[in-house]
Amino acid sequence: MTSRFEDHLSALADAVEARLAVVLADAAGPGESRRPDRLTAAMRHAVLGGGKRLRPFLVAATAELHGGGDGDPLAVAAAVECLHCYSLVHDDLPSMDDDDLRRGRPTVHRAFDEATAILAGDGLQTLAFDLLADPATHPDAAVRIALVADLAKASGPGGMVGGQMLDLSAEGRFGDGRPAALGDGEIRRLQAMKTGALIRAACTMGARVAGAGPAEVARMARYGDIVGLAFQLADDLLDVTGDAATVGKATAKDAAAGKGTLVSLNGIAAVRAELDALVAEAGTVLAPYGARAETLIAAARFVADRER
Amino acid sequence: MTSRFEDHLSALADAVEARLAVVLADAAGPGESRRPDRLTAAMRHAVLGGGKRLRPFLVAATAELHGGGDGDPLAVAAAVECLHCYSLVHDDLPSMDDDDLRRGRPTVHRAFDEATAILAGDGLQTLAFDLLADPATHPDAAVRIALVADLAKASGPGGMVGGQMLDLSAEGRFGDGRPAALGDGEIRRLQAMKTGALIRAACTMGARVAGAGPAEVARMARYGDIVGLAFQLADDLLDVTGDAATVGKATAKDAAAGKGTLVSLNGIAAVRAELDALVAEAGTVLAPYGARAETLIAAARFVADRER
């Protein structure tokens, strides 16, 4: 039996899937040539047909909390998901994590080939910014450019891409080949960059497209940081306690890579306690919104408690 | 002896180099964490210390033609060059063109490793959009978002990335492994996407950052299409007539890859005649600007006649 929150998440995932299918159609948009079939097929493989769509959900829910406006939250949600999926395609590459399986299906470089996977990822990143620049996303250019800035900061060298670099370094991929023994602070910094930054951006971008002001955007950034950390802690727990069939991707990878996580460093019990504290903190941050924040509080709880 | 145009090009290249060195510093910008040293080093290797900086020159020259305004053309030039350099890093990868040499130096994946090269390219793409979103680039959000849209359309699946996909397909990389015998129109479409689109965007973006209106932007798009085609024709000629030491990268690659070009299809003489016609056409398109367009006409001639 699914919870009311999971029904909500699933309904949004369907709406995002439909929008992504349109965004990833093979027709040429204005100002561009027709996209090559193979590239379109690879991008569609990377994006369509799977995933909880957590980041799009956060965009939609933070937009709803701030009440509508003239923007199109689903376009922003699609852009964030394209960016996220690009990062998955590249992280899965043979020279990176060398994964064969993603969301229970072959990774893009396995279903196609390595060059196509690199280009599909590249194109998905571009498409994300293209979507945000579209006047249909929000009539106000100032809002659109703020969305671009949020996404670029979150996903660039000082964000997601930098976090992946730190992650590979920590595995001992460069230098003497031995995994680094990262401390608590170093692991948190790595994870805040690699996964936290984009989750935070999903929350601030949802607020922005709904016309939220700076104070509300800052509050959504704090909420996003909490959810991002909870997401990573739960992911690290799953890597230890989950099985591949349920999770939909390989597990016990961190231990195999000799990678330190907050679970291996602090223990399962401490991490579970931190997750409880994070859910409570989310409630505090969202308190000014009263009952309207129910969905976002449920989202934080879902992320902390998720089993796959 | 260099021409007056080449002195101009060289002076702009120095200014762009200085700006890129600042953009690619290791300090954290606002809203981001500190960039990992290895990633910064790889991005700097990819971007600094070489290249004619043709695209940045086109940004600066088209901006100058439209007369100043409150924008910072050098920031736009740096963004376009970051985007261009990302494409070179990824195109050079073992699974793509597998090049060891670029601008007379080891390619990023040779100087570092494949994973680092992929991430450096990814980060350079993000950085390009980040730069365009910065209020220091232009105070008007509408101008900044138009710059983002131009760059995204030019470099995405319906532009540069799509062109690289078509190029790999034409080499017979997928399917039966035999190179495709592309016709004149197919080669032009491929090249317009792979190299032409970004050159056109450099021209429209320079006009936009200087406050040009839609008619002027459209005229710069036409000029950019001419320069882009001339650039590719000259490049194809060099691949046949140049030597690696002068050109700074491997030559005779097209023939080795069994790749059809307009040179192999139409012959050297016909391509040289087309280049002359393109230079004349550039003069016609720029005629409304009178003597002020001298630099851009010289740029078209330089691109058509270049020997490396």
From TrEMBL, chains A, B:
Cofactor(s) listed: Mg(2+)
UniProt keywords (A-Z) are:
Isoprene biosynthesis, Magnesium, Metal-binding, Transferase
Q: Which residues form the signal peptide?
A: none
PROSITE patterns the record matches: POLYPRENYL_SYNTHASE_1, POLYPRENYL_SYNTHASE_2
In its UniProt record, a GO molecular function of this protein is: prenyltransferase activity
> Can you say what this protein is called?
Probable farnesyl diphosphate synthase
> Which family would the database say this protein is a member of?
Belongs to the FPP/GGPP synthase family.
SUPFAM superfamilies on file = Terpenoid synthases
- On the tree of life, the source organism's domain of life is Bacteria
What organism is the protein native to? Oharaeibacter diazotrophicus
**One Pfam family per UniProt:** polyprenyl_synt
Name the Gene Ontology biological process terms.
Answer: terpenoid biosynthetic process
Tell me the InterPro entries matching this sequence.
Isoprenoid_synthase_dom_sf (IPR008949), Polyprenyl_synt (IPR000092), Polyprenyl_synt_CS (IPR033749), Prenyl_diphosphate_synthase (IPR053378)
Give the record's GO CC terms.
cytoplasm
